[in-house]
Amino acid sequence: MNKTDSMIEAEIWTISEKEDGNSVALSIKDPELIVPLFLDDGEIKMVLRAMEGIRSTRPQTQDLLMNFIRESGFEVIRMDLYGVKDNLVQARLVFAGGGRSEALILDAQPSDALALAIRTQCRIYVSRKVADTLGIRKDFL
Q1: Model pTM?
Q2: Which of 136, 141, 121, 27 lies closest to 77, judged by CA?
Q3: What is the largest CA-CA distance in the chain?
Q4: 25: closest CA among 107, 105, 140?
């Protein structure tokens, strides 16, 4: 992997739910940038439920996925925001276990990947390419 493809660890900086749009801002340290993810109403609610540890009385999609991951012996190792294509952020989840000798890497919508990353408390990474494309310097905010 070359320097432009390297991954930078990120953390959730803030979540904004407003009438004119919703977003999750990820903070990276090198360089000091905020990478925004814009989500629709359903996606932001899913992320907020994951943050607050709220579970419904009947399993939702995220609950079903969490049950499958746990029952199949997998573990979510990390979430990556690895690219931007046609103005859409590309995300993936990296799994270990499940009887596999190599990691299982699955593409996912950023909101789904983020909700699972929150629920599993795995690390979140942003590629340098995504940071360079979408990042906003913290001192501009």
Answers
A1: 0.89
A2: 121
A3: 47
A4: 140
